[in-house]
């Protein structure tokens, strides 16, 4: 069986941790966890995953080196709700753009972006003041990816929760706003990696009643 090596950017984040675990449980996938602190490496090495220690505020060349030899990049990183607008720009926008450029530099064609639920221009205008910079950052990161020739998939999750995953979702280009467990987003990423028809697609995901693998195949 062909092994697909996946660079998980933001591996120590809440989605990233679920994702690395799920990838390591797939026969055809293996993870390289990109983390910014060597002290975080032990948990990933215990799973049998490779580790690359790179800060998203490093340059494109450093990220490209982490991506070398992989077959896909998944961007799950985020500055988090308790940082300022400066980190939103540096991680959610510039970090994402640098990762896209790094994938190109490392000749990695497959790229999955974890975005925000709605990154339209209208969503930026309608967002609360404290949330608008994040939506704007995600909007422009998405647009940068869309402008490339990479085999992209953009996943727009609903409000993320730490509830246990159900392996069932509602998934379409447009869905009603709702919550979704982070664990189910990780499962959706794995299903997308295993489903070639998701290339060139972007879709919203919330909790629901459809098996994730079937939902992803239907997109």
TrEMBL record:
Residues 10-196 form the NAD(P)-binding domain. It comes from the Bacteria. Gene3D superfamilies: NAD(P)-binding Rossmann-like Domain (3.40.50.720). InterPro entries: NAD(P)-bd_dom (IPR016040), NAD(P)-bd_dom_sf (IPR036291). This is SDR family oxidoreductase. It comes from Gracilibacillus salinarum.
């Amino acid at each position: 069986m062909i092994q697909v090596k996946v660079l998980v950017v933001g591996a120590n984040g809440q989605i990233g941790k679920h994702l690395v675990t799920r990838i390591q449980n797939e026969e055809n996938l293996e993870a390289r966890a990109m983390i910014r602190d060597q002290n975080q490496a032990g948990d990933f090495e215990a799973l049998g995953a490779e580790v690359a220690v790179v800060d998203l505020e490093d340059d494109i060349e450093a990220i490209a080196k982490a991506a070398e030899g992989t077959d896909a990049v998944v961007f799950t990183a985020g500055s988090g709700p308790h940082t300022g607008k400066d980190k939103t720009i540096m991680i959610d926008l510039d970090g994402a753009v640098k990762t896209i450029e790094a994938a190109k530099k490392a000749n990695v064609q497959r790229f999955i972006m974890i975005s925000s639920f709605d990154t339209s221009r209208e969503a930026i205008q309608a967002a609360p003041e404290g949330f608008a910079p994040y939506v704007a950052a995600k909007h422009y990161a998405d647009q940068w990816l869309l402008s490339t020739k990479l085999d992209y998939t953009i996943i727009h999750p609903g409000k993320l929760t730490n509830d246990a995953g159900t392996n069932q979702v509602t998934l379409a280009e447009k869905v009603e706003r709702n919550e979704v467990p982070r664990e189910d987003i990780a499962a959706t990423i794995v299903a997308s990696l295993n489903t070639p028809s998701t290339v060139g697609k972007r879709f919203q995901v919330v909790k629901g009643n459809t098996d994730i693998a079937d939902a992803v195949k239907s997109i």
